[in-house]
From TrEMBL:
This is Sigma-70 family RNA polymerase sigma factor. It comes from the Bacteria. One of its GO terms (molecular function) is DNA binding. Keywords: Sigma factor, Transcription, Transcription regulation. Pfam families: Sigma70_r2, Sigma70_r4_2.
């Protein structure tokens, strides 16, 4: 009985025999084309699964190796397309993430520059108090000691700075979202 007839009859031993005979040839054929161990192993597995699944379509008058390698070739092409598609999707996703991060950085830097311009319009001592408090995170007590002023004066400068910045900054943020 020929191997194709045995396969069509559902003989798993025939499939195992075919696998043992051709697995290395299939692997090296795919590896020669792709230079990928992963792809080669995947195509070997998928090709024999397809051979078994579609065994009823095998032609008894056509050599089994020819039919097997037709399956291998189409499986390899499908696998390469799948890998390329996944690569493109990953790159697109990565590129989109990078673009979003860049937009956030640009927006942050733009907002920061606008804030610095507003701070620059305040009196020098108020600027220094504001920077020490809001940018460098010093406490009112620490700022008072550094600048030799009272904590109440520090509090007053922060309050006046915020009152000065808030209306302009709110307007800037509203305009940037339009």
């Amino acid at each position: 009985m020929c191997i194709i007839t045995e396969l069509k009859a559902g003989d798993e031993k025939a499939l195992k025999s075919l696998f043992d005979e051709y697995q290395h040839a299939v692997y090296y054929y795919v590896f020669d084309k792709t230079k990928s161990v992963y792809c080669s192993k995947e195509v070997v597995q998928l090709s024999f699964i397809k051979l078994w699944k579609y065994r009823h379509n095998l032609k008894e008058n056509v050599d089994i190796s020819y039919q097997l390698f037709r399956i291998v070739r189409t499986t390899m092409i499908d696998e390469l397309r799948k890998i390329q598609s996944n690569y493109c999707i990953e790159n697109l996703s990565h590129s989109q993430t990078q673009t979003e991060e860049l937009e956030e950085t640009i927006s942050y830097n733009d907002t920061r520059k606008k804030l610095e311009r507003l701070i620059g319009l305040m009196p020098p001592l108020r600027q220094r108090v504001f920077y020490l408090s809001r940018i460098n995170n010093y406490s009112h007590k620490e700022i008072a000691q550094m600048l030799s002023i009272s904590p109440k004066t520090v509090e007053n400068h922060i309050s006046l700075a915020l009152k000065f910045i808030r209306p302009f900054f709110t307007l800037i943020l509203l305009l940037s979202t339009i």
